[in-house]
Amino acid sequence: MKKTCLALAITLVLTIFSVSAQAATASGTLTVTATVTGSINLIFNSDPSGVTLTGTGTSAATLAFGSVAAYGGCPAHVTCTPAGINFAVSSPVDVAVYEYNSSSANYTLKAALGTADATDTWAVGGVTITTTAATITATGAYTASGTGTNYPVQITIPYTVANGTNISNTIAYTATSN
Amino acid sequence: MKVHDIVCSLRWLALVPALLLPLSARGQLTATGTINATLINRNGIALVFDPDPSGVSLGGAGSSAASLNFGTIAAYGTLSSGVTRTNVGTNSFTVQTYFDVQVTQGGLNSNSYTLSARLAAAAPTGLGYGVDGVTLTTAAQNIQTNGTYNIDVQHSLSLVVSTAAPGAGGPTVGSPLTTTLNFTATSN
Fold this sequence. Notes:
The structure holds 2 protein chains of 2 kinds. Chain A is mainly β.
């Protein structure tokens, strides 16, 4: 009799305990939607043979040639080439274009001067540029590794330009996936 | 005054107290009854999703079946308000937003709850989902073990996107990709 009572008591206690210890749960669903679209990105890198860019690795860099002269005054990593009535200064600049979520085979690169320059002649990758975008390449290869493709920036300066003249402009690059 | 008149007046006066007696005291029938009302106070908790001030708006906000739309996302370019790009790498980029979970409880002797989450089904190709830094799979994983009841608790939702081209391990582009996340709150 005593054993039976004890067993019943234990069972009761266990039952109460199991009821009170039972955790309550609640659930919810969050439906998440996103639409992925392809993109490309262009950055400038310092070419090992060129002037070190300020802002290298970004899409807004500065190329400072320094003080240049047709003869005897060409800074390191700058090529100065005298000609008949002018001289050209040039430096390699690497342009890296990356593609993301894209099946594009290549890209078209265009460049344009920010402000018209009636005195000097500007060129990117051997292509003369003005304030109207000029195509630098129509089959640019996306950068898989390394610093990108070298498109030298060149300014042709007439000898008539006065000593100490500061030459400055902005070149806008645009890469478009093909 | 005659004796007869006096007797008659006294008779009428004797009726006055009877007229002034309350109605209930005049033999009306009454009946009484009792009703025993019972209820079982069932304890429980509830979970709802709320928009976070730092995140995107939710469809079905305030309910346990909400929807969250990152909008159009890309490694570069503009994102929807409330969506941030936290990392752009060679192989993937990550976008993130925030949402709130509020768990309420009643009748429980519980001070906190554990929140777990899982993917309802395998994620679309090239996408990975994470909540509060925990990468989600189809198996439930704990997100929080000491959630506070009755307040909105902020959680981050990250989406890791492969940068590979569609068909080469990357996600489908140009069309919405949807995944359902299941959350469970358990009282501690």
